[in-house]
Write a structure and sequence with these properties.
The chain has a 5-stranded antiparallel beta sheet. By secondary structure, the protein is mainly β. It has a single domain (8-57), classed as SH3 type barrels (Roll), CATH 2.30.30. The protein has one helix at residues 46-52, and strands at residues 8-11, 21-26, 30-35, 41-45, 53-57. It is globular, with a radius of gyration of 10 Å.
């Protein structure tokens, strides 16, 4: 999957604030994502995120 920093992605499972849309801040072994609704930043392992991405938004 070709995800770059700055992309917006929709995940299959929602964040605890009930939002599914995140902005990708950093890509590497881990992805750093920022929730669009509450602004919380999370680091998630690459293999977990690649399975959980529903679609890449423009």
């Amino acid at each position: 999957m070709d995800v770059k920093a700055g992309d917006r992605v929709e995940l299959k499972k929602p964040h605890p604030c009930s939002n599914k849309i995140f902005t990708v801040l950093r890509v590497g072994m881990d992805f750093k994502l920022r929730c669009e609704k509450c602004g919380r930043e999370v680091m998630v392992p690459r293999n977990k995120i690649e399975k959980n991405i529903k679609r890449i938004l423009e």
